[in-house]
Amino acid sequence: MQKIVFYNLKEPVLREALFIKKNKDRWLKIQQQPSSDPDEMAADFTQLVDDLAYAKTFYPSGKVTGFINSQTSRIFLDIYKNRREESNRLITFWKYDLPLTIRKHHRVVLFSFLFFVLFFIIGFFVSQQDDSVASSFFGERYVEETKENIKNDNPFGIYETGNSLLNWLGIMINNIKVGLIMFTSGLFCGIPTIYKHCETSAMVGIFDQFFAERGFGIDFWLVVFVHGTLEITALILSTAAGLILGKSFLFPGTIKRLDAFKQGAKDGVKIMIGMLPVFALAAFFEGFITRLYNDISVLTTLVFALSVLFVIWYFIIYPIRLGKKMSLPQIEEEA
Q1: How many CB atoms lie within 10 A of CB 271?
Q2: Taking Cα atoms as reference points, which of 270, 265, 262, 263 lies closest to residue 245?
Q3: In angstroms, how far is the first alpha carbon of the chain from the final one?
Q4: How many CA atoms lie within 13 A of 305 on its CB side?
Q5: What is the distance of C-alpha 151 from the center of its chain?
Q6: What band does 175 get if pLDDT is binned at 50, 70 and 90?
Q7: Residue ranges covered by each domain of the chain
């Protein structure tokens, strides 16, 4: 049965500014430290419904009404998610939880991406000045084998060697391990995370320069980034997860340091869970698809293009749109 709320109009109506001041701390606590306990969540929801009814009655066009409505809608979505079946929770994670978490920390993700670009460029130009840099990063044997492949007019022949299934599993396990190291290193103020990220970024730049110098600059992107698009994206986001972990402890903001750290760890874990299938798919492409660049170049180019579109849509455009759709207006008190 729908709850009907009656207000005694003989009682003085609170000015909107006073109404905000009276309830602001409780609203912000619900927003910034949402409870995971079903009973507490239900109690918060009931209070917000009462607040919303009051605000709609006396401040129908006020900003506070929109704010409370957004808060109420989000808690309702959380309650609804908790009642759904496990399979639907998985859908909810990919449709809402992960994109909203990425959107929440979009500045950290952007910082991680800019670091990648910076050290990619540094690696590229340092390698351009010193040919021995590539050997120091990839090993003399790998470099010599690649040079031999270039002489045989098959510059990326390294991807055609080995068993596809074993390559897939080996690459997947290694990349997931690297991603988890980047994340957990955030416990040390994020410094090891940044170091590992810079090293990886420079390595990609060195790899690119190695082929660009020999006239295969464009081919590098069309071949290596068949799997590299998803792989690099996952590494950038793993770095961001580690930085979120470190940042939450170093800069807790207005809440307790321990609470901020718990929230940062929770957000970081969400991102890492989301990256596991991305790492797996990238490794699958490297083990099974990249090696086909000579035989079925149309397929490899298509996979590369679709990967780029997916990354731009799911990790950039969609989180921004979803964030705007579900964003909470800021509370502004009247002077």
Answers
A1: 24
A2: 265
A3: 40
A4: 6
A5: 41
A6: very high
A7: 16-82, 104-325
- Distance in angstroms (rounded) separating the CA atoms of residues 235 and 152: 33
Distance CA 93, CA 89 (A): 6
Alpha helices in the chain (DSSP H): 16-32, 38-58, 63-82, 86-92, 98-104, 106-129, 132-138, 140-151, 164-184, 191-212, 217-250, 257-284, 297-312, 318-326
Q: What is the rounded distance in angstroms from the CA atom of residue 195 to the CA atom of residue 203?
A: 12
Report whether 51 contacts 68 (CB < 8 A): yes
CA distance 179 to 196: 10
Residue keyed to tokens 């991680």: 112
User: pLDDT tens digit string along 36-89?
Assistant: 666 677 777 788 888 888 888 788 877 788 788 877 777 777 766 555 544 577
